[in-house]
């Protein structure tokens, strides 16, 4: 990354660190320094001013950590010093932060579903600023969305779970009852059933993205029901750790969580945001950016599975990796029929597959899931 000098480097680090640690330093202060770092020797800005808004902190070891890794990859590749604002709750505070950043940034990434309305409102007032929202569905000429087909990864770890269960009772702690989580649970279930037709998946909701205490309580409720493999869709490893304490196999989320329960860890879906962030900011720089609803695949490098835990049998690993290759080759579609819902009603006929739009709007569970979707 190009710097103006040692002094400027120290100033940049100081301000970004202050913002990252949740101090009162306003986003515009860090933005001013980032703008200087993105300016040529003649004073003319050469690169866009980019900002990232995080619900948590990179230290969560999950969702925010992987977004921050993607941001760092973008900075390294494009020579851009970006602004980060951490611990921004969804709601009115988020709208205020996005409004402040829009005053002195060209590109703003919002990395939580709950930022959607805030970003939509601010984007309408700042048509010259480009906004990109992770996991949402509202768009404008200057507001795009981005996400990845994590359900491909969920299917694969579901296969491993289906092979490793001994009582065919799997558990899943869902975050919020939104399509992103619902279709991930469905893919996990379909993966498990593909190798073990008797596998069932019990679901409870934590209604959190990152709240270890609440997530542990939800996990415990499933462990008390006798599940012998437990998966979760949150940013913390709380469910995985709760499972390990009972001697139960666990599956994490977002980032490689094997270190939190090495003896009882299977694997988990992981995000790799670097390719998207590099591509998106490059398109701004070369003038080709346009608002889109990006939905990257495993083949695009946006999603993958973490390395298997040390106690996962080799035959299970080989089975999963063979299916992964089919996904990469484009010869296997997770949501190809026949697929039925919980009531046994056919939702996807044999010989057909769900469209991207249908997947992104999924509000029903597949057959074999024990749980409800609150309305």
From TrEMBL:
Gene3D superfamilies: 3.40.50.2300
Keywords: Signal
Signal peptide annotation: 1-17
Occurrences of domain ABC transporter substrate-binding protein PnrA-like (ranges): 49-327
Transmembrane segments: none
SUPFAM superfamilies for the chain: Periplasmic binding protein-like I
Pfam family, one: Bmp
UniProt cross-references to PROSITE patterns, sorted A to Z: PROKAR_LIPOPROTEIN (PS51257)
InterPro entries: ABC-Purine-Binding (IPR052910), Peripla_BP_I (IPR028082), PnrA-like (IPR003760)
Name of the molecule in the record: BMP family ABC transporter substrate-binding protein
UniProt organism field: Paenibacillus xanthanilyticus
Lineage start: Bacteria, Bacillati, Bacillota, Bacilli, Bacillales
